[in-house]
Amino acid sequence: MKSNLKTVQALTVHFALYSLSTLPTSSFSTFQLSKASLQIPPATELASYWELGYLEMENASKKWVFKGNKALEAADAICVRGVLNMLNDNLNGDDNKPAIPLGHGDPSVFPCFRTTAIAEDAIVEAVRSAEFNCYSPTIGILPARRAIAAYLSQDISYQLSPDDVYLTVGCNNSIEVIISVLASPSANILLPRPGYPMYESRAAFSNLEVRHFDLVPEKGWQVDLDSVEALADENTVAMVIVNPGNPCGSVFTCQHLKKVAETAKKLGIFVIADEVYGHLTFGSNPFVPMGKFGSIVPVITLGSISKRWIVPGWRLGWIVTCDPNGSLKKSRIAESIRRYLNISADPPTVIQGAIPQILEKTKDDFFAKIIKICSQAADICYDRLKEIPCITCPHKPEGSMFVMVKLNVSLLEDIDDDMDFCLKLAREESVIVLPGVAVGLKNWLRITFAVEPSTLEEGLGRIKTFYNRHMKQQ
């Protein structure tokens, strides 16, 4: 409306000037003006002004039939980025304290988590070679797929083929692809609770029904296999596990993973194994890939270089079919993945070109350094959280970059729930923590410990200060 008003005002002035221009020159002496002093637009320009104004006024009254997609509102409401953006918007701009990010899994901003020079050099060489300035095949270039197949085959009892590997724009894109492939009418998928909400977001957008099975905190966040069996029906297509765990920091044992495989086989479904944090373990349980049990049940492994190499911005992920019996080919799931990638974006070819060198030449001492930092940070986090009475940690993290802790709001004044806690914590202490409701558990918190140790200490100290300020008086 304001835009149209300005247009009308401009038109009025211009046409008034044009009307004056039609008067005889003698008429201007009354106003002590000269006709030449008036900046009068030509008649053709006035016509275009009139047409523009007419169209704007016409458009203001026209009812357009297009509108935004409401499905995106539902999907965005349950994704980590949406919640973190809201918390960041709630930071106090007048607070001189630096904001401390304990809510997301990107430690690359901290110097102690810098990636290996081997990875950086591989990118430089790929760029300078001028061999990777082209588009790539939609499933990825062969050298990269061959290198990933060899890398993942090291931990399983059979050899993966490059034909089993599909490259994606990071692991989130892998999730988008597999959820879209499975989203057929009446189908449903089983997701862990708590879990990584990108699965819920993509399922909501794709109209794929979601059913949640529980992870049991008292048992190291193991899968409640009884609930899996109770939830599944003839329309269930797959179940998702995230190992090492996001958001729980758990690491499944080999025995537990075998039980997961046997349960899925019994139900006639396949397993989607999100292993983006693969090998980032520092507890008593080593990392065991779900693909190890591919002969029992078909497994689709999702992964990337983002976490183990600390390069989430490079956006290189993969989907791998761990299926020596060929069930995913017979059911045409593999073909559907390929077809979806034909209508999807490809990861940068230059990053693909660097993958063989990154996977084959990275030294073990780099991985050991990252594991040591994460292990020490997990110890700091676990110990310092014990000093905050309103927070309970049921299981010390053994992998990934996160820990789930229970929030007792009954010990706090003027705090309604976990979301309220996180909003006020951001406002008062400039600390960002993810509310548990975002990952499926109300009145829990997900805390990221993969930050500089001194920053982690400072952040946990501020949470303790926040508790002291809001604790309920006896």
Automatic annotation (TrEMBL):
Gene3D superfamilies: Aspartate Aminotransferase, domain 1, Type I PLP-dependent aspartate aminotransferase-like (Major domain)
Keywords: Pyridoxal phosphate
Organism: Theobroma cacao (Cacao)
Protein name: Tyrosine transaminase family protein isoform 1
BP terms from Gene Ontology: L-tyrosine catabolic process
Domain Aminotransferase class I/classII large, residue spans: 100-463
Family, per entry: Belongs to the class-I pyridoxal-phosphate-dependent aminotransferase family.
Keyword Translocase: no
A single GO molecular function term of this UniProt record: pyridoxal phosphate binding
Cofactor: pyridoxal 5'-phosphate
Residue(s) carrying N6-(pyridoxal phosphate)lysine: K307
